[in-house]
Write a structure and sequence with these properties.
By secondary structure, this protein is of the alpha+beta class. It is built from 3 helices and 6 strands; from the N terminus they run ααββαββββ. It has a 6-stranded mixed beta sheet. The longest helix has 19 residues.
Length: about 150
């Protein structure tokens, strides 16, 4: 069961706004907006579900370009599980509920994501995104996901 956490501090609220901007940029398939979400350093890291570990902004930027070029539609609902701010670093754990259309095929998925942010010149920027597909419980009869 997911437990959403309401922001308790102004910093947590700011981090959650930046996290929402990341998902809005993804849903809009807007590479410029996505670029503005990230710190943009050689130390940035990203793991898309099923992809290799990406290190450095040039590799991550290229991954988003490739993802956006293959999608014709994507919609998100990110359920916030937790947000934590310590100094100039922050972590958001969430469940990405996605519906995507790629090459005419519609897919629904849930991804467990961890997003790390650093404060840069007073603004929160992503330094790591890690997404992993979520396993679903299946009934004994194999009837499908259980809710």
């Amino acid at each position: 069961m997911l437990h959403s956490q309401s922001p308790q501090t102004p910093d947590e609220a700011s981090v959650l706004r930046q996290n929402a901007e990341f998902y809005d940029a993804f849903a809009a398939m807007d590479l410029d907006r996505m670029t503005r979400c990230w710190f943009g350093a050689d130390s940035d890291t990203c793991v898309h579900p099923g992809w290799e570990f990406l290190v450095g902004w040039p590799e991550i930027h290229e991954s988003w370009r490739a993802i956006f070029s293959g999608l014709s539609f994507v919609r998100f609902h990110a359920e916030i599980v937790s947000v934590r701010v310590v100094g100039d670093a922050a972590r958001v754990c969430c469940v990405e509920n996605m519906m995507m259309i790629t090459h005419g095929v519609t897919a629904h998925s849930q991804v467990a994501a961890t997003n790390l942010f650093e404060r840069q010149d007073g603004e929160w920027r992503m330094v790591m995104h890690h997404g992993s597909p979520m396993a679903h419980s299946v009934s004994a009869e194999g009837a499908g996901p259980m809710n």
